[in-house]
């Protein structure tokens, strides 16, 4: 199966629309969101086209295709307007035969990993940086931020297709799209 994975939309209708188009055009089976969906938080500037109500409408249009975890900027009140569950601090998925521990990154992180076995993957957002590496046999993955990237990176998202995890810039459909980082899992 094919999955689109993204994090840190932070209420940007502009990037939520772009992510929705990527999901639609990709043929992916599910959209996995790693938290911080509607609000920007006190440390971030407002993202482009900040419109949480519009983001709610966009994401609810994909409610049957979304798996999500809670970010540090997500609250119980957000769950009241979103038609898919977001309040879990983490989820464990078996995707294409690989165990993924999905978390936003503010509780569990690469520096505070849950109990994991070699060959499993830890995937999170939160730091707004794209990461695809293997440390001590555990895959550490982060799609970067769709709306407020850091470290000079472009807005980004990732694709898990089979055992290949690829991070792409979130660009307009007509723009050339080379990958930022890529890793083969397993």
Structural summary, described in words:
This protein is α/β, with parallel strands linked by helices and 186 residues long. It has one domain (2-184): Purple Acid Phosphatase, chain A, domain 2. 15% of the residues lie in helices and 30% in strands. The chain contains 3 helices and 11 strands. The protein has helices at residues 13-26, 52-60, 76-79; strands at residues 2-6, 30-33, 66-68, 90-95, 98-103, 121-123, 130-135, 138-143, 156-161, 164-169, 181-184. The chain has a 6-stranded mixed beta sheet, covered by helices on one side. The radius of gyration is 15 Å and the shape is globular. The model has no long low-confidence stretch (mean pLDDT 94). Its cofactor is a divalent metal cation. Its EC number is 3.1.4.-. GO terms for molecular function: hydrolase activity; metal ion binding. It comes from Johnsonella ignava ATCC 51276. Keywords: Metal-binding.
Q: What's this entry about, in short?
A:
This is Phosphoesterase. With 186 residues, the chain is of the alpha/beta class.
């Amino acid at each position: 199966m094919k999955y689109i994975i993204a994090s840190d939309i932070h209420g940007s209708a502009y990037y939520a629309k772009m992510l929705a188009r990527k999901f639609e055009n990709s043929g992916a089976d599910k959209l996995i969101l790693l938290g911080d969906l509607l609000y920007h938080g006190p440390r971030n500037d407002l993202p482009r086209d900040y419109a949480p109500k519009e983001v709610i409408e966009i994401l609810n249009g994909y409610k049957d295709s979304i798996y999500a975890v809670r970010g540090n900027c997500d609250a119980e009140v957000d769950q009241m307007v979103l038609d898919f569950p977001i309040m879990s601090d983490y989820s464990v998925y078996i995707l294409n035969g690989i165990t993924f521990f999905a978390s936003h990154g503010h509780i569990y992180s690469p520096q505070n990993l849950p109990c994991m076995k070699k060959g499993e993957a830890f995937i999170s957002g939160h730091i707004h940086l794209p990461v695809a590496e293997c440390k001590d046999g555990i895959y550490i993955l982060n799609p970067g931020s769709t709306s407020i990237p850091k470290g000079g990176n472009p807005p980004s998202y990732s694709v898990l297709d089979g055992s290949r995890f690829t991070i792409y810039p979130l660009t307009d459909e007509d723009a050339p799209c080379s990958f930022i980082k890529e890793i083969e899992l397993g």
